[in-house]
Amino acid sequence: MKIFNSLTMTKQEFTPIEPGKVSMYVCGPTVYNLIHIGNARPMIVFDTFRRYLEHKGYEVNYVSNFTDVDDKIIKAAIEEGVTAEEIANRYIAECRKDMEAMNIMPATTHPQATLEIDGMIEMIGKLIDEGHAYEKNGTVYFSTRSFKDYGELSHKNLDDLRSGFRDLKVSGEDEKEDPLDFVLWKPKKEGEPSWPSPWSDGRPGWHIECSVMAKRYLGDTIDIHAGGEDLIFPHHENEIAQSTCANGVPFAHYWMHNAFLNIDNKKMSKSLGNFFTVRDISKEYDLQVLRLFMLSAHYRSPLNFSAPLMESAKASLERICNAAMRLHDLCLGGADGEMTEEERKTALEAKAFILRFDERMDDDNNTADAVSVVFDLVRYANSFVPDTATKALAKAVLDVLTELTDVLGLIVVREKEDLDAEIEALIEERQAARKAKDFAAADRIRDELKARGIELLDTREGVKWKRV
Ligand code: AMP
Ligand code: ZN
Fold first, then answer.
1. Percent of the chain residues past pLDDT 90, beyond the cut
2. What is the rounded CA–CA span in Å between residue 29 and residue 277?
3. Co-location of 67 and 21 in the same domain
4. Which one of the ligands is nearest to 42 CA?
5. pLDDT digits (tens, 9 = 90+) for 321-368
6. Which three-class secondary structure state does DSSP give residue 192?
7. Do 246 and 331 fall into the same domain?
8. 122 lies in a domain?
9. Does 267 reside within a domain?
C-alpha cells in the first residue's frame, strides 16, 4: 500500500512500525461552534482510511483530539456569559452527534486538551531543560533555531519567512528571540481558564497539546499523522519540532493532508462566513450523501461544494442502495438450494471486485476510483444476479457489496423496521413543525417523504402513512 507522504512529497510504500498494527493521530476540531462541512472532510476521509486499514487486517489505534481551550472558545464564552468549559462541552457533544450521523467510527481515544495539562507541563519543562525553550515574563517560547530540521515538513524558505516577520510586532509576543518562535505556555488574562505551572498561571499553546496527546496515547514515534493541509504550517511543523526535541526520536513516519473543501473555489471557513454546518446539511440530506460526495473526490484534490454535486451524490447513493436492497430481498425470497455452476462463476467474479477496490485504495487512499469500482459492482449485480437467482448467490454478491460499502462507511442495507422508525420520526418532526406554524418546514418534510414513496393521510386518529 502506498501513501503520499507530505514530508517527502512522494508516494511511499507503507510499512508500520509494528507489523499488523497502525498508530494514527488526526487533529480534531476546536469546539466553539457546530462543525462545518469543511471540518467534516478530514473526519470522513481519514475515517475511511482507518476502515480500509482495518479491512486489510491491521489493528488501528486511532486518536483524534478535541481542542477545548482556545481564544475562540473563550470569546464565545464571554459573548454568552457562560464558562469556556460549558461552551467546549456543549460543542463536543454536538460534534459527537454529527460524527455519528456521518457514520464516523468513534476514535480509539478522543483526548481533550484540558484533561492533559500535566503532560504538557512536563514536556515544556523538558524542552526548557534541554535548551529548546525559554521563558519570558511567564510566557514560554519554543526556540525554533534549536531544532535543525525546522521547516522540513512545510518545505518553506525559513530565511524568507523570518525576514518577512521581522517588522511584524505580534502583540504580546515581541519578547520572542526569533520571529518563528512560538508559544508553549501563556499567562492567563483576566477571566480566562488557567492552570498553575512553574512559569505562570496560564494555559498551553495549541501546538503542544497535540504533541502531548499523541505521545500519551500512541507513543514517541507514530505511524501516521493527519489533518487538513492548512495545518502543515505552522501547526504540524511545530508539533514535529516539539516532539522530536522532547522525545529524541522522529515523531511521525507518514504525514497525510487533505485538501480544502471550497465554495466558489474559496476555502470554506468560519472566518469567511462561507460555510454550511453539518447540521444544516443534515436537514436537506441523509449525511451518507455528504459522505459519498466527499469520497467521490481524491482527498488531496480541492473539492468544490455545490448543490448539483450533492444531488448527483444522492442519486448515486440511491443506485447503490437499490441494488443492495434488491439483493437483500433476494436473500430472503430467492430460490432455495445450492448455487448453479453458472452462479458459482458469477459469485467468484463478484468477489474479484474486492481486489480491484483494494488496488485503488492501495494507491494513496484513492476513494474516487474505489467508489467507481463499487458502481461497476452494482452494474454487475444488476445484470448478472437475476430475480430468479438463488438465495445463496444473492448473499454472496451482497456480502461483497457490503464489504466495500463498509470500508466507505456507507450503510446500504436498512432493515424495514429501521426504515419505518425513520419515517415515524420524520412524521413527528412534521407535526411539531405544523404546531409551531413552520409550514415551510412541514411542507419540506412532506415532500421528502413523498420522494421516498411515502404518502401521508390525515385521519381522525392522527397521521397515517403508506408506501405507494
Ligand atoms: P479547526 O477546527 O479549524 O482546527 O479544523 C479542524 C480540522 O478541519 C483541521 O484538520 C482543518 O484542517 C480542517 N478543515 C477546516 N476547514 C477545512 C476546509 N474548508 N476543507 C478541508 N478541511 C478543513
Ligand atoms: Zn494537532
1. 83
2. 13
3. yes
4. 1
5. 999 999 999 999 999 999 999 999 999 999 999 999 999 999 999 999
6. coil
7. no
8. yes
9. no
**Cα Rg, the chain, nearest whole Å:** 26
Taking the CA of residue 303 as reference, the ligand 1 atom at the shortest distance is: 20
Q: Say if 209 falls within a structural domain.
A: yes
User: How many domains is the chain built from?
Assistant: 3
Does the beta carbon of 204 lie inside 6 Å of ligand 1? no
Nearest CA to ligand 1 atom 11: 228
Q: What is the pTM of this model?
A: 0.90
Q: Which residue has the higher pLDDT, 460 or 256?
A: 256
Tell me the C-alpha distance between 50 and 54, whole Å: 6
List b or e across 308-319, with b for residues whose CB sees 16 or more CB atoms inside 10 angstroms. eebeebbebbee
Query: C-alpha cell of 78?
Result: 464571554
Reading the block at residue 456, the C-alpha cell is 401521508
Are residues 273 and 244 in contact, defined by beta-carbon separation less than 8 angstroms? no
Domain hosting residue 319, numbered range: 307-408
Residue of 26, 30, 39 best suited for mutating to test ligand 1, as the one with most atoms within 8 Å of CB: 39
Tabulate helix, strand, coil % of the chain (nearest 5).
Answer: 50, 15, 30
CB atoms within 5 A of ion ligand 2 belong to 27, 210
Cα 371 to Cα 298: distance, rounded to the nearest angstrom:
10
In a domain, 273, yes or no: no
The protein residue with its alpha carbon nearest to ligand 1, atom 12, reads: 228
CA 411 / ligand 1 centre spacing (Å)? 25
Asked if residue 320 lies in contact with residue 295, where contact means CB atoms within 8 angstroms, the answer is no
Grid cell digits, residue 172? 504580546
Torsion angle in degrees (nearest 10) through CA of 359, 363, 366, 367: 40
- At residue 168, the pLDDT reads 52
Question: Which residue's CA lies nearest to atom 8 of ligand 1?
Answer: 39
> Whose C-alpha lies nearest to ligand 1, atom 7?
39
CA of 27 to the centre of ligand 2 (A): 4
